[in-house]
Amino acid sequence: MTYPSWLPLLLGFLSATVPLSTDMYLPAFPAIEAGFGVALGSAQITLAAWFLGLGFGQITQGTLADRFGRRAPLMISTAIFTLANIGCALAPNLVWLSVLRLLAAFSGSASMVIPRAIVRDLSSGHAAAQMMSRLILVSGAAPIFAPSLGGVMLMFWSWRAIFWFAAIYGGVCWLLVLRYLPDTLPVEQRLTANIWGMLRRYGEILVEPSFIPNALMYGLGMFAMFAFIGGSPGVFIDGMHFSPSDYALVFSACALCFVVFSQLNPSLL
User: Fold this and answer.
1) H or E, element range at 112
2) Which of 23, 104, 141, 246 has the maximal Cβ count within 10 Å?
């Protein structure tokens, strides 16, 4: 199936929502803890809530997109993501910030799952790998620049400005989906099963032999990456006394490697 040449750019921009929101506020952990007057390391709770929301969101968003099409769930999710980040910017304490981060992650996970489903709709095999690599090339820029952007914001504004920026980004995503994104899943191909039928499909996937090794490889790889993301602010900033800007440089170098090696994927396949 043919698709516009700009579509991978749009999908990459949407996919960048989660890495941008994850990485941009990492240098702000000490500022968040100081702002709320909580103990050192307490800001990690907001990151745990974020990952919890991502986990449950990725399980459910794909099913919703298979049932209602690609466009409508993505529009609703980006709207909720935008509102949740406005709430984060106005949060009165760490508890509310954690709850709103959970909601932002749950809704934002649609921007991770649905663009990949669109790739599946439009291509397969080696063509899908090429399109996915182009998507990662765009979305991979987010973790490179996000910590640096967060560090720069902290030099001029409070940590709340980071969430205002994320809200604006979410609003732009909503407008782009509204204006440009086609629904690539025809009505006749959408799932019509009820909730029990969908749960049965999950059970079938869990015992599918080809699913288990691929899921384990991807899951363990993501586990290592997110362990680094979650632990790096405490190690570099609190433990090794890096400034937020120095930490952003180290983190960006690691993210750059992620993008470079993702571009080797089509050749390796």
Assistant:
1) helix 110-122
2) 104
69 Cβ contact list (under 8 Å, min separation 6): 183, 185, 187, 190
For CA atoms 164, 170, 173, 177, the dihedral sign is: negative
| Rounded Cα gap, residues 117 and 18, in angstroms | 16
- Spatial separation of the C-alpha atoms in residues 158 and 142, rounded to whole Å: 21
- Nearest-angstrom CA–CA distance, 229 and 233: 8
**Residue 234: DSSP 8-state:** I
| Predicted TM-score (pTM) above 0.90 | no
Q: What are the tokens at 253?
A: 């170098």
- What tens digit of pLDDT does each residue of 83-137 get? 999 999 998 898 899 999 999 999 888 888 888 777 776 766 666 666 666 666 6
Q: How many CB atoms lie within 10 A of CB 111?
A: 28
Q: Which residue has the tokens 């952990």?
A: 29
- What's the rounded Cα separation, in Å, for the pair 51 and 230? 9
DSSP state of 259: H
